[in-house]
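Customer escalation, tier 2.

The customer says the design service returned an amino acid string that "doesn't look like it belongs to this structure." They asked us to rerun it and document both sides in this ticket. The original structure tokens are below, unchanged.
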């Protein structure tokens, strides 16, 4: 993982993904100086998800997709797009949970819990089950974080029962679609390149 993280970018997509990571780090600094602690915290919360695809050695396109979607999700919160754009919340939960579930599959493969995509033991039906499980678990965890943030930190965080259920349903659907993608598209970069 360390070698993948420190490896210089080689493709346009890898440079773009590193650019998204740089924007993510800068956005935290900018929010910490000129915005609220809540905004800086939301953006900082996204940083591990921006860095993980690089450490895992995901292909440039997959790395870029994960980073861009996660950063858009965080920035949407800062600019209050979830309240001002009808349906935006559901679109972002679908996409963000999907890329998190796909990345989660790669993490589980690295831990030896599921077979990696290129191995003889890999079966395309496996990510169709595993990715939705990861996505629903991540959705539940996210909704608990939102609830705790509203309950203990600030009432600026929007939480209702209907919103929570809708977010989790769209997240589960996004994770199912991600499972279909993981079933047929290799996410990891060829280690020989």
């Amino acid at each position: 993982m360390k070698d993948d993280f420190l490896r210089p970018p080689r493709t346009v997509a890898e440079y773009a993904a590193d650019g998204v990571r740089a924007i993510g780090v800068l956005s935290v600094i900018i929010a910490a100086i000129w915005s609220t602690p809540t905004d800086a915290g939301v953006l900082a919360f996204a940083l591990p998800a921006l860095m993980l695809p690089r450490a895992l050695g995901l292909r440039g396109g997959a790395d870029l997709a994960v980073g861009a979607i996660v950063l858009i999700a965080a920035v949407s919160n800062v600019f209050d797009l979830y309240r001002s754009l009808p349906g935006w919340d559901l679109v972002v939960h679908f996409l963000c949970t999907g890329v998190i579930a796909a990345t989660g599959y790669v993490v589980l493969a690295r831990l030896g819990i599921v077979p990696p995509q290129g191995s003889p033991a890999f079966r395309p039906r496996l990510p169709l089950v595993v990715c939705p499980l990861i996505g629903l678990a991540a959705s539940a965890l996210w909704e608990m974080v939102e609830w705790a943030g509203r309950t203990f930190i600030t009432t600026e965080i929007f939480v209702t029962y209907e919103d929570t259920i809708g977010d989790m349903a769209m997240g589960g659907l996004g994770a199912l679609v991600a499972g279909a993608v993981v079933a047929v598209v290799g996410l990891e970069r060829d280690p020989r390149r």
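Tier 2 assessment: The sequence is consistent with the input. The CA atoms of residues 72 and 187 lie 21 Å apart. The chain has two domains: 1-79, 85-187. Sent an explanation to the customer and offered a walkthrough call.
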